[in-house]
Amino acid sequence: MFEFLQVTAEYSNAVLVAIMPYISDFARNLDLPIPQPITPAHVRFFGCSYRSDHIGGRVVLTNDYEFSFDRGRVVLFRSPNCYFHLQDVNRIPEFYGKVKVTQKEAVQVACEAIKKLGYTEAVLHADRPPRVTPPPRSGANVVTRYRIEWLDPEQDPQDRGILRRTVEFEVDAVTKQIHMMGLMSKATVRPDPVIGVRAPVMAKGPQSQPVGGRRIHPVSATYSNSFLLAILPQVSEYLKKAGFETRIPISTNDVDMGRFECGLVDNDPNAFFYLKTGERIVYSHGQVICFEAADAVRLPENKEHPPNTAYGPVNMTADEAVSLARKAVTQLGYSIKELGLDRPPKIAKPWNYKTNFLARYFLNWIRRDGEVPVYLAVAEVDATTKKLKALYINDHANTNIWRAPPKIDVPMTLETNTPPKQASEAVNWRNQQRLV
After folding, report:
1. What percent of the chain is modeled with pLDDT above 90?
2. Dihedral Cα 2, 3, 7, 13, nearest 10 deg
3. Cβ atoms of 376 and 434 closer than 8 Å
4. What is the pLDDT of residues 122-162, one digit of tens each?
5. pLDDT higher than threshold 60 for residue 434
6. What are the angstrom distances between the C-alpha of 7 and each of 21, 55, 103, 116, 366?
7. Cα–Cα distances in Å, from 270 out to 183, 406, 417?
8. The model's pTM
9. How far apart are CA 412 and CA 222, in angstroms?
10. Do residues 115 and 138 lie in contact, with contact meaning Cβ atoms separated by under 8 Å?
11. What is the mean pLDDT of residues 279-289?
12. Contact yes or no for 172/101 (Cβ under 8 A)
């Protein structure tokens, strides 16, 4: 949920001043032919975003270079000589010429640009072969431009066969100059710059609704409170065995009751709740199936703006992160082989941003049922502290791990005055994978 802001001149100017250093750094890193530093005095037009949930806008300089800033980074750049976004067909002959740069050289230019901007090839999937549009032909004429795109290999069935791009470039086939870059990967999201001006709220934005998942049928308050009291010893034991850095034992005083849900999901009592210190826990089929630390990047509230504790030096390898996650699963009493975790996971490694690292490993164990990916388990590991930050085991992918929920002396009564809704659970982790 977000609000629509009334973009005042004061607010717009404050946002422009805050994002100009990012644009200046971007232009310098890509060696764009623009005098440095770029300041608001070089701006011909600025369209400030009116959304309250993040800071951004479109900047057009007096030399017609264009930049779009969103969620802490430049997401789109176009030079005045960008061909693939050309609006005036009468200009097409200006782009005719003789190709002097090979496709391999153009791809290398794009790869070097990714590194200059502080990203890794792995995080943008640029360690895979790109999709390249060669210089277009018009009769005997050739447009001296390459279009280079990298695609996300994790295809979501809901995309109906449309592959998602992570990044794209337009490279000059004569000079090797970059004339366009588009950044689509959510893995590159960074914290918003801080501004000291607040804009008045004009209206409420659209309210998002959960999509997919399983229906939760609320139970009576008497049953839900008794169920919570019964499972908390299991929660404490889970945290101890898995090695999470959370104060134990957990009592009802530690639970944020305003963010506690209990109900039947597929005729099984489930609980979804937060601790007052920010951790999120999901209980299903007689066990904790998901835990996320308060500073886990995978928490919904941390996805767009990772906490400062997520940044730091990388003190462990990917293999060590995998071993740590497997050790936690084993200590919880599961069989690595039975869960399918003896196979190599898909790994999103820490990526650098300027002089710092988002020091987290994201491990995804995936099984494919036909064209549909099933996430068997997911883990997030802090590469600085060498600690587990999140763990999810998909209890619906392997029903052999189901356990009986604790017996309580309160009859299970459905809350008839409250309609069923989507469970705010982690069972549908597939829908959260777009971060990596």
Report:
1. 55
2. -40
3. no
4. 889 999 999 999 999 988 999 999 999 998 876 443 333 44
5. no
6. 21, 12, 44, 33, 45
7. 39, 11, 19
8. 0.54
9. 9
10. no
11. 94
12. yes
Residue 213's alpha-carbon distances to 267, 292, 296, 426, in angstroms, are: 15, 19, 22, 9
Contacts 24+ apart (CB under 8 A), 312-317: 312/356, 312/357, 312/359, 312/383, 312/384, 313/357, 313/359, 313/383, 313/384, 314/350, 314/357, 314/359, 314/383, 314/384, 315/359, 315/383, 315/384, 315/385, 315/386, 316/361, 316/381, 316/383, 316/386
Q: Using CA atoms, how far apart are residues 373 and 7, in angstroms rounded to an integer? A: 43
Distance between CA atoms of 302 and 101, rounded to whole angstroms?
Answer: 43
- Sign of CA pseudo-dihedral 116, 71, 276, 223: negative
| Domain boundaries defined on the chain | 3-203, 215-435
Q: How far is CA 245 from the centre of its chain?
A: 24
Q: What is the mean pLDDT of residues 7-14?
A: 91
Phi-psi region of 57 (alpha: psi -120 to 50; beta: other; left: phi over 0): left
- Tell me how crowded residue 105 is: count the other CB atoms within 10 A of its CB: 13
- Tokens, residue 151: 């695609």
pLDDT given for residue 420 in this prediction? 52
**Residue of 262, 261, 268 lying closest to 284 (CA atoms):** 268
Considering 33-42, 167-176, 269-278, 312-321, the range whose residues carry the highest mean pLDDT is 167-176
CB under 8 A, 24+ apart: contacts of 371-375: 371/155, 371/157, 372/157, 373/154, 373/155, 373/430, 374/430, 375/429, 375/430, 375/433
Q: What is the pLDDT of residues 95-121, one digit of tens each?
A: 999 999 999 999 999 999 999 999 999
Token couple for 269: 């009592």
Q: What is the pLDDT of residue 396?
A: 84
Residue 323: per-residue pLDDT? 95
274 in Cβ contact with 296 (< 8 Å): no
The answer to whether the Cα torsion of 305, 311, 317, 322 is positive or negative is negative
Whether 25 has a pLDDT exceeding 90, the answer reads yes
Q: 325, 333, 346, 350: which is closest to 430 by C-alpha?
A: 346
Tokens 């300041």 belong to residue:
39
CA quadruple 29, 30, 33, 34: dihedral sign = negative
